[in-house]
Amino acid sequence: MATKPAIPLILGSVRPNNNCDGLASFIIDQWHQKISSESDLPSIVSAKELMPPNLSLPIGPFEEPRLSHGIHAPEEYTTPEVQEWSKIIRSAPAVIIITPQYNWGIPGQLKNLLDHLFNEWNAKPFLIITYGGHGGSKCAEQLSSVIQMGLKAKLVCDPIQITLPKEYISGEKRVSRESKGQDDAFLLEYKNNIAVALDALINAIAPKKAE
Ligand SMILES: Cc1cc2nc3c(=O)[nH]c(=O)nc-3n(C[C@H](O)[C@H](O)[C@H](O)COP(=O)(O)O)c2cc1C
Q1: What tens digit of pLDDT does each residue of 159-186 get?
Q2: Which of 91, 131, 162, 194 has its CA 20 to 30 A from that of 99?
Q3: Residue 23: what are its φ and ψ, rounded to 5°?
Q4: Where are the domains of the chain?
Q5: CATH of 23-35+44-58+72-209, one of 3.30.460.10, 3.40.50.360, 3.30.750.24, 3.10.20.30
Q6: Atom 1, ligand 1: residue with shortest CA distance
Q7: What share of the chain is helix, strand, coil (3-state, %, to 5)?
């Protein structure tokens, strides 16, 4: 039986001991709680895990000799990493990005991941979640422009902006990867907005499922 393509969850941080992995687990857990009774909906899987085990996500500089705009099949890309990335996004019903703001903008590795493809993104439903000391608002603004104006994709709703408490930025605390939000009380206030955003995502990929 063919498996349904997953919704890739793109993580904007690749640093060790980050907050991104914990926030990603929290989002995936919220999705599972929501879709438990709707098992024909796709799962959300970290984009890294969707790549073959021997290949990394193309987070490095764009080195393709041709513009992605003129490429219409995965095998036209020159590296196996970008070919696989193209296949994943081509078959994805939607895409979710969870990312920190770095210096008032989009982390470079995330921008590279987006820049490696073009036609694959067109009309794809996107959900953006940013975070930082002030919700990652500058990153959310920039990413919204890149996705809508640059990549011709569509946002299912306004970006969700999560403000990290100080101890998660300048202190030792990090969002837990295991506790599903229970160790991180500040996440409680975002649960409702995340649920609404996930409903918008469901609506975009399977309109008949939304209420
Ligand atoms: C390179 C870098 C730049 C940052 N720039 C900002 C910023 O512009 N605004 C902000 O609120 N926090 C900023 N921060 C703090 C991050 O919000 C915080 O460290 C967050 O945990 C980073 O996400 P991560 O831990 O998942 O990598 C920055 C952190 C780093 C590492």
Answers
A1: 999 999 999 999 999 999 987 778 899 9
A2: 91
A3: -65, -40
A4: 23-35+44-58+72-209
A5: 3.40.50.360
A6: 102
A7: 40, 15, 45
